[in-house]
Amino acid sequence: MNDLEKAVSKRRTFAIISHPDAGKTTITEQLLLLGGVIRSAGTVKGKKTGQFATSDWMAIEKQRGISVTSSVMQFDYADKRVNILDTPGHEDFSEDTYRTLMAVDAAVMVIDSAKGIEPQTKKLFKVVKQRGIPIFTFMNKLDRDGREPLDLIAELEDLLSIEGYAMNWPIGMGKDLRGLYDRAQKRIELYRPTDEAHRFLPLDPETGQLTEASDLTEESIYQQTLDDVDLLSEAGNSFDLEKIKTGDQTPVFFGSALTNFGVETFLQSFLEMAPAPSTHEINDDSETLSPVDKHFSGFVFKIQANMNPNHRDRIAFIRICSGEFDKGMDVQLTRTGKKLRLNNATEFMSDERENVEKAVAGDIVGLYDTGNFQIGDSIYTGKNPIKFAPLPQFTPELFMRVTAKNVMKQKSFHKGMQQLVQEGAIQLYKTYTTEDYILGAVGQLQFEVFQFRMKNEYNSEVIMTPIGSRTARWIDPEQLDENMSSSRNLLVKDLKGEPLFLFENAFAERWFQDKYPDVKLTAKL
Ligand code: G4P
């Protein structure tokens, strides 16, 4: 193995997905503690010292109690370089999450064991499944009374159509939580042991029974666990690493993030099973690119302005797909053919941003951007242009007319609009003839964040007038006649200048199609 191969083989890059409140932030925090990046719990969420609170617009997260941004965190653990990409749990930010999922090699799904599979888990799971990457499951909040573990696994298999393999099994739960029966590592992990040295009790690999005398054996809860584990061994799925690699089986871990129980066990197993960066299909699937290719390449999966309010900067997040990143290197941007020197890059070590010198395939780097990048852009070195697969795009369903409250402040209004739209969280349209601004989003919350950020970051108060829910349909400019437009099918153009109609409802669209049967309408360009 050369140095690059060695470095790439140590990378583990993954995202954590969950329904809001399942415990994603809490488990992330525990992982960062284990990685030595933070020193005490409570720093990640909404506290003054945490990276998550360094941006003032994130105050909206605190107000609403939700996680809005996707952040990148990196740490070393057990000779591996771990990259965690956080994703917003709220469904209004699904688009951001979907793109983030394109930049990872595995996903961790956190489930509240009292609630089971919730709607947002299901939605995000589908995307991960489509990507064919491994999915690891953490059944959280075992310190609370939850649902029967067998029931949880059955629901997971049923609703998500994936095999579950329990890596460990709870011994009791809620007030009666005693520990975990670790099937994978053949040991019992005690919950809150009086003495840390006795946290793990070995199991006989053959019989699966405790090898030492313990009070546990007297307890009916423990007997119940043994019965369940027997049942799993006889009637459950068998462990299949090949299926795990393709996302057809998910290893299931139980634990409690809040009390830091089972999290380290999870991390250790995860790092062993999760894949190192693998190949990418490029140039319209005509070629395969190895992560250890000697040429550097990567793609932009996210752009975020003003991460640090003191600097007012814009950062393009790049997933490195091949080779090595060196500070100051020259790359080419596939979309424009433009050459760029990457002088200013940043890595993300949770509590501070460090200036990056070197990163390899699997890593995420943030590039300070002066307007060169768009979401989905590919960059590369070497002679052969590289284009990665396009990132998923959503057609907005909610629309607002937007104007500056203070007409004297047009400059900051336009600047803010332009920059926030470039981040890709919100779509901008203009009415066809009068060029009024119309914003489109997938969820209402995106508008609220937009309005909040315009005020906080650009000092521009905006007036938003809801147009409501609309169906966006593009029309071939050749077929367009401006008289086709009415209040029920508003004619606008997108950022590229392509015309589209915003139909009031399905009825309006049908009416239009009846009237103009030759006109071809498309859902997305
Ligand atoms: P999210 O990022 O997925 O939205 O969830 P988050 O980690 O913020 O957790 C949501 C709530 O669930 C938090 O409580 C958190 O403390 C709690 N929680 C997370 N993991 C566990 C666990 O293992 N056991 C128990 N009992 N609770 C857990 P909160 O009261 O909403 O927020 P906070 O004010 O405590 O931060």
From TrEMBL:
Subcellular location, record wording: Cytoplasm
Keyword Methyltransferase carried by entry: no
Binding site residues for GTP: 18-25, 86-90, 140-143
Pfam families, A to Z: EF-G_D2, GTP_EFTU, RF3_C
InterPro entries according to UniProt: EF-G-like_DII, EFG_III/V, G_TR_CS, P-loop_NTPase, PrfC, RF3_C, RF3_dom_3_sf, RF3_GTP-bd
SUPFAM superfamilies named among the record's database cross-references: EF-G C-terminal domain-like, P-loop containing nucleoside triphosphate hydrolases, Translation proteins
Any coiled-coil regions, as ranges: none
PROSITE patterns referenced in this protein's UniProt entry, alphabetically: G_TR_1, G_TR_2
Entry keyword set: Cytoplasm, GTP-binding, Nucleotide-binding, Protein biosynthesis
Domain Tr-type G: 9-278
Domain of life: Bacteria
Cross-referenced HAMAP family: Rel_fac_3
Reported function: Increases the formation of ribosomal termination complexes and stimulates activities of RF-1 and RF-2. It binds guanine nucleotides and has strong preference for UGA stop codons. It may interact directly with the ribosome. The stimulation of RF-1 and RF-2 is significantly reduced by GTP and GDP, but not by GMP.
Family: Belongs to the TRAFAC class translation factor GTPase superfamily. Classic translation factor GTPase family. PrfC subfamily.
Protein name (Swiss-Prot/TrEMBL): Peptide chain release factor 3
Native source organism of the sequence: Agrilactobacillus yilanensis
Lineage of origin: Bacteria, Bacillati, Bacillota, Bacilli, Lactobacillales
Name of the gene encoding the protein in the UniProt record: prfC
